[in-house]
Predict the structure.
Amino acid sequence: MPRLKIDENLPVVHVSDRSTLENLTGSWRTMAPRLRPEKCTGCMLCWKYCPDACIEMIDGRPVIDMDHCKGCGICVAECPPKCLIMVEEGAR
Ligand code: SF4
Ligand code: SF4
């Protein structure tokens, strides 16, 4: 089996072996998505692209689990009618 060559000049990255459900975001998020529901078409692209799988579609609209949302903004970038926007944490 090939062995990884460790470069001592690179930072050590710890990868969790636990489910993302166990990894709460904590207090470090600086931006968060906010939905303007009147413009949402229910296309589910935000649900599909969220890397944390923390968006649930309820009655045709996305509901974001903010305990797990990392504030990456991918859902905002992928939303066709731009009804998701990023706001500063605490401004939700
Ligand atoms: S900001 Fe990122 S983690 Fe949060 S709901 Fe959107 S895609 Fe998911
Ligand atoms: S991507 Fe935008 S329009 Fe589509 S379901 Fe999500 S919030 Fe609604």
